[in-house]
Design a protein that fits this description.
The protein has eight helices and 20 strands. The chain is of the alpha+beta class and 356 residues long. The strands form five sheets. A six-stranded mixed β-sheet has the order 6-7-8-3-9-10, with helices on both faces. The chain has a four-stranded antiparallel β-sheet with strand order 2-1-4-5, covered by helices on one side. A four-stranded antiparallel β-sheet has the order 18-17-16-19, with no helix packed on it. The two termini are 31 Å apart. It binds adenosine-5'-diphosphate and magnesium ion (MG). The site of adenosine-5'-diphosphate has 10 residues, from helix 1.
């Protein structure tokens, strides 16, 4: 085992009846890392988290924590903190009793409990609210209690399952910042489960893009966004234009033709042209001023135009199919629907992605 791996998930599988839900997942996490499992609803994120916590038993595969195989260790002995989507606070217990639950269970002495409570109330900014009941708290405050409760036992790993999804947009942004701050302050190894790509990108050191029970790509947010391995990943993380072109294999590159020219895109993974497509991110396409310095130049007709406040989304139709363009809003005029324009981009901004 690599020495800097703290949590290792090895060929993990889970079937409910005959249905595979987690399908051979591999993931290595370093101590202090913040990793997100990002994927659409139903792809197996919660099931994975439940297996790490020990609440679900894997059909096969192993989970290692700090060099120890914990696959068959009961949840209470794993020293893992978990925050569920609905917070799952005990309604008949006060904030203090909720936070101290794990310590009482472990028969930690009273003085140490007081000390830890005071540290945690400080950490999650809940000082003064310790006598309240969950129903007397806002959603964001309940969330903080759930996080404090998970951290009380000084767990090895903090697991967060869609912890922000019940909060409105403004509060969600605040709580995301809070969690990031807590994670940096405590240095705790954290796994966040989310279907929200912006949230995962903003918070994580690395993302594991999950689909049908496997991780399609595991990398930093920037590397994943900039070099998506497949069409699915490219589309899940932002928007991507998949271009319609006949591709030819030319060794280290594939070639395609546009505007009467033969052009080449890097194929560093040597994908077969039948199994890949060429792509360009909408914000890499230029229209104004006339994109004369671009290696790819195409005539285009504007088919749609949407204003986002800080940018415009312009839909066009070209000889390579539809090309969506995202341009920052600087106050300059933008082309209108039906208008003929020229669009352009650079070859080194194009990516070859697997068709899946
Ligand atoms: N206890 C269970 N019994 C049967 N099917 C389940 C159970 N838990 C989850 N599933 C199914 O497994 C799939 C993955 O679920 P889940 O891990 O909750 O996905 P996610 O958290 O990514 O939305 C879903 O199709 C879900 O219906
Ligand atoms: Mg889930």
């Amino acid at each position: 085992m690599m020495s800097d791996v703290f949590l290792r998930i090895e060929n993990l599988r889970k079937e409910f009846g005959a249905t595979p839900v987690v399908n051979g997942l591999d993931l290595d996490i370093k101590q202090g890392e913040f990793v997100s499992l990002l994927g659409a609803s139903g792809c197996g994120k919660t099931t994975t988290l439940q297996m790490i916590a020990g609440f679900e038993k894997p059909t096969s595969g192993r989970i290692w924590l700090n060099g120890k195989d914990i696959t068959d260790v009961p949840p209470s002995k794993r020293e893992i903190g978990i925050v569920f989507q609905n917070y799952a606070l005990f309604p008949h217990m006060t904030v203090e009793e909720n936070i101290l639950f794990g310590l009482v269970l472990r028969k930690v002495d009273k003085a140490a409990q007081r000390k830890r409570l005071s540290e945690l109330l400080d950490l999650v900014h809940l000082v003064g609210l310790e006598a309240r009941y969950p129903r007397e708290l806002s959603g964001g405050q309940q969330q903080r209690v759930a996080i404090a409760r998970a951290l009380a036992i000084k767990p090895n790993v903090l697991l967060l399952d869609e912890p922000f999804s019940n909060l409105d947009a403004r509060l969600r942004a605040d709580m995301q910042n809070e969690v990031k701050r807590l994670q940096i302050e405590t240095g705790i190894t954290t796994i966040l489960v989310t279907h929200d790509q912006a949230e995962a990108m903003a918070l994580s050191d690395r993302l594991a893009i999950m689909h049908k029970g496997v991780a399609l790509q595991v990398d930093t947010p920037q590397a994943t966004y900039d070099h998506p391995a497949s069409r699915y990943v490219g589309n899940f993380l932002g928007n991507i234009n998949i271009l319609q072109a006949d591709l030819r294999d030319v060794g280290s590159h594939v070639s395609f033709s546009a505007n009467g020219k033969s052009l080449q895109v890097l194929n560093d993974q040597r994908l077969s042209p039948e199994r890949c497509c060429i792509s360009i991110r909408p914000e890499r396409v230029r229209i104004q001023p006339q994109p004369t310095d671009c290696e790819v130049l195409l005539g285009a007709t504007v088919t749609s135009k949407n204003y986002n406040g800080n940018s415009w989304d312009i839909g066009t139709e070209t000889e390579l199919g539809s090309v969506n363009i995202n341009i920052p809003h600087h106050g300059a005029p933008t082309p209108d629907r039906g208008q003929s324009i020229v669009v352009g981009w650079n070859l080194n901004d194009m990516r070859l992605v697997h068709v899946d």
